[in-house]
Amino acid sequence: MLAVTSLVAALALMPLTFVVWITVQTGWDTVVELVFRRRVGELLGNTLLLVLLTLPLSVVVAVTLAWLTERSDLPGRRFWAWLAVAPLAVPAFVHSYAWVTVAPGLHGLAAAVLVSVLAYSPFLYLPVAAQLRRLDPTMEDVAASLGHGPWRVFLTVVLPQLRVAVYGGCLLIGLHLLAEYGLYVMIQFDTFTTAIVDQFQSAYNGPAANMLAGVLVLLCMGLMGGEALLRGQERYARVGSGAARQAAPTKLGRATLPCLVIPLLFAALSLGVPMLTLGRWLAIGGARIWQGADIGSAILQTVALALAGALLTTLAAAPMAWLSVRAPGRLQRVLEACHYYVGSLPGVVVALALVTITVRVALPLYQTVGTVLLAYMLLFLPRALVGLRASIAQAPVELERAAMALGRTPLQAVRQITFRLAAPGAAASMAMVALGITNELTATLMLAPSGTRTLATEFWALTSEIDYAGAAPYAVMMVAASLPMTILLHIQSKRAAGR
Amino acid sequence: MSFLQVQGLGKRYGDAVALEDVDLSVRAGSRTAIVGRSGSGKTTLLRIVAGFETADRGRILLDGRPLVEAGTMVPAHRRGIGYVPQDGALFPHLSIADNIAFGLERNDPTRRTRILELLEAVELDRQMLERRPHELSGGQQQRVALARALARKPALMLLDEPFSALDTGLRDSLRRTVARVLCEADIATILVTHDQAEALSFADQVAVMREGRLTQAGPPQELYHRPRDRETATFLGDAIILPAEVENGWASCSLGRLAVAGGPRRGAAEIMLRPEQLRLVVDHDHAANGGDGGSMGWGRVVDVEFGGSVCKVAVTLGNAPGQPAPLLLRHSSMDLPRIGSRVRIHVQGEAHLFDTPLS
């Protein structure tokens, strides 16, 4: 298992190795000249502000929504739970396409933070809601019997136990913020990633782009280090025995109406705005925008790539997820870091590395489906890993030992007990990966064999030509393709928590 | 003077009745055990007393102060009632010291000494203080949970099957510790359990619940020897229940003529004996006494089950009409009768007559 993990990690290290190698080739003087300049300082400021503002806001939004949908008697809370996850079905760059349409003057930091929170907070909502369902309500009873009022119980007992879920979700969102390209280009907010793409487009794989990528890698490593440091040695499994009782929902009483406004507002901004915009463009475009054979072939190609990529990525992430839960150690942490960092690289850096390597070392692989899938695997390893790790942590090692005591071989025990228990989480992480691939833009543009047309690349091509109406069908298709996966994700996350 | 009073408590979950018209009173500093099968409503009763759930009907008074009354309900955190759940429910994100001190004021100057006192009271080592809950064994976790609940010096302590997850030896020693600690602190206690032996040995008042109703409450000896009905009798321990004809304080049954406690009832009834009231005498000289039923029962051994200090002997009664199920009697491992041998059965004490007439 360690061998497989190491192989995946080595593949994952390829883009980094590429950056380092290019740096060495460029020479120290040029590197200093390219990195220590005002432009990089601005980008650093922008990117850090984006992360530091988006994460706390997302935590507040996600925890509030999760509590309302899981722990209160909010009318229609099942429905609101769906709506809290649904923004995942709308690709980030479609979110900003919608907001730019609604408010053409929207740009800069505030706009970036707004759209990021709306597009990404479901990534926090899901683990936080799942953790809330898992919490043993007896603990809150005990805290109340020890004289703590409801608000203090939430702060001292519930919130601290959400920590691991919050850190995990924040890491995921943080990585997306660092890697996203389309969203920020549309609202004219410069981050490292947009700057790298600009550089690349103007000078192929020039050293300037590579140096910016180097700084970006450092940023994302800082993020991962921070999460690991905060998470520390927190134990995942519940202390004590017996099945947890289901928590009785808190009665909102007179606060029901104001509380109803929160999910309503979130749904209006994160779903209402994209839906209205798309509806409007479709109406304006009429039948014209649906004509031509392009849409059908784009759907087929997207689905095929998404499924193949998701399978490959989950299989590649499984050994690492296993080791990081069951045999955590220094080596495993290093390997895990390798898996994580690669997903935080903008697609363009991974693509750039693969372009260069295939051209120089393995030309037959240049612009083949295999290379695209490899890029997907590298890009979406963290998604698969987060889900798999959490689900394997759900299957305590004791159960496996019990199975072995009942005469199963270790391999059988793993297959019959742990895989069975981890299956919902694995399915969820596959869905996450497929969702990502459906909406992946940059690496697909650069690596796919010529003639490959996915929904995302077609959408991007049309919006670049300011044909917003023509792009709308592709956006609708991407949303439609992501919907079943979002639904699956939501259901599986509930099942993983034992409901 | 009762310290806790529960009056006419009722609770439904949809159509299912969880509690119906439950009355219970608990004296200050006493120990009460509520015992019943799972689903009998005992945990619901405890949770309503604790304030975790609301009652549909009825009142609860603690030391004269109404906790639950029509339209009002004091929330759990203002009741000052201690609670120890089944698995301890220690806060996994806090150390043992912080768990114990959870109910204390954060800037209490006596905090440290209080923690140490409590730790000592529940017989735990000081080295535990900086550990996390998952590093402790189940019994240690329960001790911490008790210390945590004691920290606020509650007037009433509720224990929700706190020993059920532990193995037998640990269970007994922990039960004794808990009883001692609560007795020393003079805290009235309610223990919920499905284990009748635990209830009988722990409490000075036992309350039996069945299908949401409190069927009988009283001192353990009284409940054990004078249960109101057949179900309570068999729930609290092994019972020998025989049909009998009752007249003037005597019952005629397959064991002969037995004295019965209870009023001047007459007619057909069911009587109950505890197995320890019956003593087997191996009848070596059966030829001489053959056919002599007399006032003493006799029978034939059909099975012997060796069980260490106490063994079980199955006996069919010789003078019983028809072929009723054999009686299971206890016998010392010394002088066990052989299968097929004839035995005499001596009865000690009075037989108990159920209140409810035979239907």
From TrEMBL, chain B:
SMART domains: AAA. Keywords: ATP-binding, Cell membrane, Ion transport, Iron, Iron transport, Membrane, Nucleotide-binding, Transport. GO terms for biological process: quaternary ammonium group transport. InterPro entries: AAA+_ATPase, ABC_SmlMolc_Importer, ABC_transporter-like_ATP-bd, ABC_transporter-like_CS, ABC_transpr_FbpC, Mo/tungstate-bd_C_term_dom, P-loop_NTPase, Transp-assoc_OB_typ2. Residues 4-236 form the ABC transporter domain. GO terms for molecular function: ABC-type ferric iron transporter activity; ATP binding; ATP hydrolysis activity. Transmembrane segments: none annotated. It comes from the Bacteria. GO terms for cellular component: ATP-binding cassette (ABC) transporter complex. It holds the Pfam family TOBE_2. Gene3D superfamilies: 2.40.50.450, P-loop containing nucleotide triphosphate hydrolases. The keyword ATP-binding applies. This is ABC transporter ATP-binding protein. It comes from Azospirillum lipoferum.
